[in-house]
Amino acid sequence: MIQHWLAKMLLFPFSLLYGLGVLIHTGLYRLGILKAMSFDVPVITVGNLSVGGAGKSPHIEYLVNSLQAYIRIATLSRGYRRKSRGFMVVEPQMNAEQAGDEPLQFKRKFPELLVAVAEDRALAIPNLMVEQPNTQLILLDDAFQHRAVKAGLNILLTEFDSPFTRDWLLPAGRLRELPAACQRADIIIVTKCPPSVSAAERAQLLAELKPLPHQKVFFSYYRYLPPYFLFDRHTELQLSPELEVLFVSAIARTEYALAYLNRQVADVRVMEYEDHHYFSRYDIGQIHKAFERIETPSKVIITTEKDATRLELHRKYLHENQLPVFVLPVEVAFHFDQQQEFDATIRQFLLDFTV
Q1: Beta carbons of 37 and 122 less than 8 angstroms apart
Q2: How does DSSP assign 66-127, residue by residue?
C-alpha cells in the first residue's frame, strides 16, 4: 500500500500536466474555437471518465436489445487496436484484427445491426448514413471524450467499487478527464454493482456523485448466462461445484467475472493480459500448458466475449489440441426496479428528438 501511494505521488506532477492539456482542450470547445458537429439523427454516447473496465459494451448491447425491434440502430466505435484504418462497416466474417474486438462482438451478436468503425466519429457519421440512410439512432461507443460530435444524450458509466470520485488523473490514476467532466452527462450509471445493494449504499454513492438536478442516476449489475463453446454458440456448459476453470482474460477489470466464477465452481486459475491484448502463438502455448497442469478431468477454459474474438484467431491450434474454450456471456440488469425508468428515459429522448 505504501509503495502504491508513493508511485501515485511520484506520478502526480505528470497528472498535473495531463490535466492542463485536458483543460485547454475543453476550453477550446467552450470558447467555440473548436466546434462540435450536430446531426439530424439522434446520437447517444456511452462512455466513462476512466480508462477501460466500466462495462461500456454490455450497456451498448442492452440498448440494442431493448430498441432494435422498434427502430433501426447503428453503432460507431473507434475499433481500438484494429490493424485496419479509416471508416469501415464491420461484417460477421471479419476477424478482430480487421474490425476490433468489441465491434466484431456487436456484429456477431446482432447480425442485423449496422456496426461501423472509424477513428474520427464526426467524419464517419455521414459515411454511416450513406451506408444506411434510414438509421434512426446512432450509439457512439466509448465517446464521452469525443467532443467533435454533439450527442443528444450522454450516458456516463462509473464502477460501484471504484467511482470516478475516488480516482486521479492519468498517469497517477485512471481518469482521462477531471471528475467535473461528469457534468456533461445526462445519465450516470453506477455499473458492476453487487447482486444486492442496500438503500444506504445507494444513498452514500449518490451523496458522493452529487448529481445535478437534470441528471438521472441508475444502478446496474451483470447477469451471467451459461458459457457457450467458442466455435459453437449452441453448445453450452453447465457450471458446477466439481468444475475447475482456467480463466483467460485480456480486459481491463476481471474482479466481477472472477467473483461470479468463484461462486459457481471448485477452483479458478487465472491468466491475465493487458486490455485488448492480441494473443500470440506463444501465449496460446502457455495457456495450453497451464490447462494441462490442472489435474482433474473436470476442467475447462473460460474467457470473456471480447477476448473470444481474439482467441478465435488461433482457431486451428485450439481445434488441433482440442482445448475446451468456453465464452462467458453477460447481460445488464438494473437494481431498485429502475429498468422501466431507464427504458422510458431513452424512449423520451427519442420522442423529443423527433418533435
Answers
A1: yes
A2: HHTTTS-EEEEE--TT-S--S-EE--TT--HHHH-HHHHHHHHH-TTSEEEE-S-HHHHHHH
pLDDT, tens digit (0-9, with 9 covering 90-100), for 128-146 = 999 999 999 999 999 998 8
The rounded distance, in Å, linking the Cα atoms of 23 and 246 is: 44
Secondary structure class of 322 (helix, strand, coil): coil
Helix-then-strand count for the chain, H and E: 11, 15
To which H or E segment does residue 225 belong?
none
Taking 70 as the pLDDT cut, the residues of the chain under it are 1-5, 7, 355
- Spatial neighbors of 248 by CB under 8 A, at least 6 apart, are 271, 287, 301, 302, 303, 307, 311, 325
Task: Supply the DSSP string of 168-222, one letter for each residue.
Answer: -BTTTSSBSS-GGGGGG-SEEEEES--S---HHHHHHHHHHH---TT-EEEEEEE
In this predicted structure, what is the pLDDT of residue 108?
A: 96
Which residues does 203 contact at the CB level (< 8 Å), separation at least 6? none
H or E segment and range at residue 244: strand 244-249
Query: Between β-strands 73-77 and 137-141, what pairing exists: parallel, antiparallel or unpaired?
Result: parallel
CB proximity list for 326: less than 8 A, separation 6 or greater:
227, 228, 229, 230, 237, 300, 301, 302, 303
User: Cα separation of 275 and 307, whole Å?
Assistant: 9
- CA-CA distance, 17 to 7, in Å (whole number)? 16
**Any idea which residue has 452527462 for its cell?**
185
Q: What is the CA radius of gyration of the chain?
A: 21
Q: In what order do the strands lie in the sheet with 216-224?
A: 88-89, 114-117, 73-77, 137-141, 43-48, 153-159, 187-191, 216-224, 330-334
CA distance 106 to 109: 5
Q: Which of 129, 58, 112 is nearest to 304 (CA)?
A: 58
